[in-house]
Amino acid sequence: MSPGALALGYLGAGAALAIVAIALRRPRASDVLLLVTMWPLWAPLLLTRSTTDEPRVEALFAALARARTSPLAATLPDADNARVLAGRLREASARLAELELVLVRPDFDPRAVEQRAAELDARGAHAAAATAQLRVRTLGRLHALRARYRAELDEVHELIAQLVTQAELVRLQPSAAGASSEVVRELVAQIEGLDQLFAYQASLDADSADSLGAAAEYPPPAARSS
């Protein structure tokens, strides 16, 4: 079979997959183009991708698909590992979005709660002031957690952008593949490192639960001995 016939068959297969994808998932125009031109790589990612993926996950899938057309392909995670990485990135993005939604509330402002604690203490409501101070510490941890999620996800974003750039460089200059593969390792390590942030958040949740349990053990005013 001639190269021209092979090329037509390749594009025909991609076009057929694109038609199926349009019927089943209503993909974006960029997805359709990638299906037609790079269907062996893009089709598995598109079919296993959530229809509600957020931009970071979309960018990860697009970068991996693009890099697979370059000499970097051998250093990239396979489809199964790519889905695992995307799952971590999706979860981290969801947790950050949840923190952003909660911490924008006025009653979650540590400075306002600190002021409230001072007012209570000045009135002699020392137990209430201590509880308010506990809220201040908890809110401080939540704000610090949000900052960590932002920093980690910003780094992932930059590494994804760098992977796309390196893929183009390697396509033009194959000798740079060795050095460029370090970007792949850094990206994978950064996303895998999100597990440590999840564990840190779990420890904060446990600490908060312990604090609530300790408060519950303290007898209410009517039950205290005089």
Rg computed from alpha carbons, rounded to a whole number of angstroms: 26 Å
* N-end to C-end Cα span: 98 Å
Mean pLDDT: 78
> Class by helix and strand content?
mainly alpha
Number of helices, counting only DSSP H or I runs of 4 residues or more: 8
- In terms of per-residue confidence, which ranges show pLDDT below 50 for 5 or more consecutive residues? 215-226
The main pleated sheet reads as: none
Helix content: over 70%
Whole-number tally of structural domains: 2
Shape estimate: elongated
* Total number of beta strands: 0
Query: Order of helices and strands, N to C?
Result: HHHHHHHH
Oligomer: single chain
- Strand fraction equals under 5%
Describe, in plain words, how this protein is organized in 3D.
The chain is mainly alpha-helical and 226 residues long. It folds into two domains: 1-48, no CATH class; 51-108 and 136-217, no CATH class. Helix 1 (3-25) crosses helix 2, helix 4 (79-103) packs antiparallel against helix 6 (126-172) and helix 6 runs antiparallel to helix 8. It is built from eight helices and no strands. The chain has helices at 3-25, 29-48, 55-67, 79-103, 110-122, 126-172, 177-192, 194-217.
